């Protein structure tokens, strides 16, 4: 296959920028050696990246004999990105630099999930608030990434179906971008991504997936979802719907799921499902500490209430946690048998519950095939509750690396 000059130049820029980003401090000769490019080509591209303020000098190489070569590093703190997570009950947003360092973050409860206009309005207000609080020049912000649960049209920026919000065919990026333009006078590039896949990007660039080429991130929270990174790339699927782990059937005649099917993993083992099962037990007269921990109000029973009771060795709560862990473990073991990943990263609010994780690990060990996943590592994410927002913001870093740098506006150049 013949490659034209433009494509070849782009490929070379990607190589050089990715090498500098991965290696940290590195000299031009080492860049040439690691990329396989000629030294003049490596020097030319590095100088172009210096001009764009994507790369900067970071001193001379220590310990070298003779004239010590100049060292260069990725200037990740020169530009910023916004990420926002449309979680089922709360919006979480942050502004971070391209090294993954947050400079401002906050959350707001979602007013009425079914009211898309109100949710989008709240999102715009939250982003505007964070940009003001951060104090950074707005022209240093490269764009906004948005993570939403459900089936999405990524090209059109639309939510085709989100059972958690009860949305169908909702335009998201266009109205959000318009509201931000009204507030900031800037029209930023905006990218939409499924919240589970955004979470996986966060792990890939800044979390437990760093250095792994093939891993799966599993989101255990209000709902259940997953996303896979294969050969360093996010798996999206032919129609953009990959990763719906929560909607595999685990009980043929199980409870109705928000997606419309019966017996989905999410319907029996998610945070929402655990809370509903606890409320059902209380209503049927089962004696349990769960109601007491909810202040005697059954409507205040949440998954975290059940986990708190389980830590106190409440029998009913322990049984609910054991049952959820068994179903989730079966789902993860199936993923391992199918895909043979290097690593499984457990994220989301329920990933911090040790009793649940212990049960999951036990079931995975039993249920996976004898020789499948022999080397797989099961780890809990360290990114915390803002993991999806971090991943949404990381979309701009991914775009920058794919483009081999930026074509900066005059305002951006002056802002650096």
From TrEMBL:
SUPFAM superfamilies: Actin-like ATPase domain, Winged helix' DNA-binding domain
Pfam families reported in the protein's UniProt record: HTH_24 (PF13412), ROK (PF00480)
Keywords: Carbohydrate metabolism, Kinase, Transferase, Xylose metabolism
Its EC number(s): 2.7.1.2
BP GO terms, sorted: D-xylose metabolic process
Gene Ontology molecular function: glucokinase activity
Top class in the EC scheme: transferase
InterPro entries named in the record: ATPase_NBD, ROK, ROK_cs, WH-like_DNA-bd_sf, WH_DNA-bd_sf
Top-level taxonomic group: Bacteria
Entry function: Transcriptional repressor of xylose-utilizing enzymes.
UniProt similarity note: Belongs to the ROK (NagC/XylR) family.
PANTHER family (UniProt xref): BIFUNCTIONAL UDP-N-ACETYLGLUCOSAMINE 2-EPIMERASE_N-ACETYLMANNOSAMINE KINASE, ROK (REPRESSOR, ORF, KINASE) FAMILY
The protein's name in its UniProt record: Glucokinase
Source lineage: Bacteria, Bacillati, Bacillota, Clostridia, Eubacteriales
């Amino acid at each position: 296959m013949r490659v034209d000059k433009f494509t070849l130049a782009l490929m070379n820029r990607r190589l050089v920028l990715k090498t500098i980003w991965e290696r940290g401090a590195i000299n031009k000769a080492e860049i040439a050696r690691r990329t396989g490019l000629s030294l003049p080509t490596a020097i030319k591209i590095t100088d172009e990246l210096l001009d764009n303020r994507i790369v900067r000098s970071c001193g001379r190489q220590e310990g070298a004999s003779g004239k010590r070569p100049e060292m260069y590093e990725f200037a990740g703190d020169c530009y910023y990105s916004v990420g926002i997570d449309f979680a089922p009950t709360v919006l979480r947003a942050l502004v971070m630099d391209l090294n993954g360092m947050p400079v401002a973050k906050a959350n707001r409860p979602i007013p009425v999930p079914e009211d898309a206009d109100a949710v989008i309005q709240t999102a715009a207000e939250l982003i505007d608030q964070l940009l003001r609080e951060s104090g950074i020049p707005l022209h240093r912000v490269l764009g906004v990434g948005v993570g939403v649960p459900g089936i999405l049209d990524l090209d059109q920026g639309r939510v085709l179906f989100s059972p958690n919000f009860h949305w169908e065919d909702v335009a998201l990026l266009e109205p959000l971008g318009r509201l931000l333009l009204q507030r900031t006078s800037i029209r930023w590039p905006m990218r939409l991504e499924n919240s589970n896949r955004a979470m996986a990007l966060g792990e890939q660039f800044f979390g437990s997936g760093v250095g792994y080429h093939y891993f799966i991130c599993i989101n255990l929270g209000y709902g259940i979802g997953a996303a896979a990174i294969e050969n360093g790339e996010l798996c999206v699927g032919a129609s953009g719907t990959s990763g719906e782990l929560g909607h595999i059937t685990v009980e043929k005649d199980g409870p109705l799921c928000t997606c419309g099917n019966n017996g989905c993993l999410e319907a029996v083992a998610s945070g929402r499902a655990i809370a509903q099962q606890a409320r059902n037990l209380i209503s049927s007269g089962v004696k349990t500490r769960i109601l007491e921990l909810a202040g005697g109000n059954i409507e205040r029973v949440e998954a975290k209430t059940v986990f708190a009771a389980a830590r106190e060795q409440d029998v009913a709560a322990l049984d609910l946690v054991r049952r959820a862990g068994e179903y989730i473990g079966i789902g993860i073991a199936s993923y391992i048998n199918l895909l043979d990943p290097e690593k499984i990263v457990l994220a989301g609010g329920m990933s911090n519950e040790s009793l649940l994780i212990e049960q999951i690990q036990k079931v995975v060990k039993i249920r996976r095939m004898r020789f499948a996943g022999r080397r797989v590592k099961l780890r809990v994410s360290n990114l915390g509750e803002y993991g999806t927002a971090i991943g949404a913001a990381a979309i701009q870093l991914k775009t920058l690396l794919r483009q081999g740098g930026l074509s900066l506006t005059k305002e951006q150049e002056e802002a650096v």
